[in-house]
Design brief:
about 150 residues; mainly beta; Immunoglobulin-like; about 40% strand; globular; binds copper (II) ion
């Protein structure tokens, strides 16, 4: 696993010169959820995008696990659907089991298989983007904008 976090020097140089080119094939998601009247249930909106461009035409399911409690939860995955007349914006309602840090896993099946992970913190009313709350945590290398490099 070490290579993932300390890539060969050539890779590092390319990444510093042109991170957008390097990551242009990666789909990202931006999820925002608000609580429903049911306990631990949230209505969510998600945008999938490549390089800030929203992507239309996806379908698939989304599940949730707690990184800190690997096997403790059994959230039922739900379908996400694109909103009518709002291309690139998707919605779903998901029943979680507690507040705290959840990892959402989007399994996209159409138009091609892809998987997108997004970490969110849930409080009683809404979700908070993980990056906003923990700027210096040790999460996925690809989420960093290479701010750790000294030039
Ligand atoms: Cu838990």
């Amino acid at each position: 696993m070490k290579n993932l976090f300390f890539p060969p020097i050539a890779f590092v140089l390319i990444a510093c010169i042109s991170p957008t080119v390097l990551y242009s094939m990666m789909t990202k998601s931006k999820t925002e959820c608000t609580a429903t009247s049911k306990k631990f249930q949230y209505k969510c909106n998600v945008i999938f995008y490549h390089k800030k461009e929203p992507i239309s035409g996806y379908s698939g399911i989304v599940g949730a696990t707690m990184p800190s409690m690997a096997m403790a939860h059994n959230v039922i995955p739900v379908k996400f659907t694109e909103k009518e007349r709002m291309a690139g914006q998707y919605k779903f309602t998901i029943q979680l089991e507690m507040l705290g840090e959840w990892m959402f896993q989007y399994d996209i099946s159409t138009p091609k298989r892809d998987r997108v992970l997004e970490k969110l913190i849930f409080d009683k009313t809404k979700s908070i983007a993980f990056d906003k709350k923990h700027n210096h945590s040790h999460h996925k290398h690809s989420d960093h904008k290479h701010s750790g490099h000294d030039h």
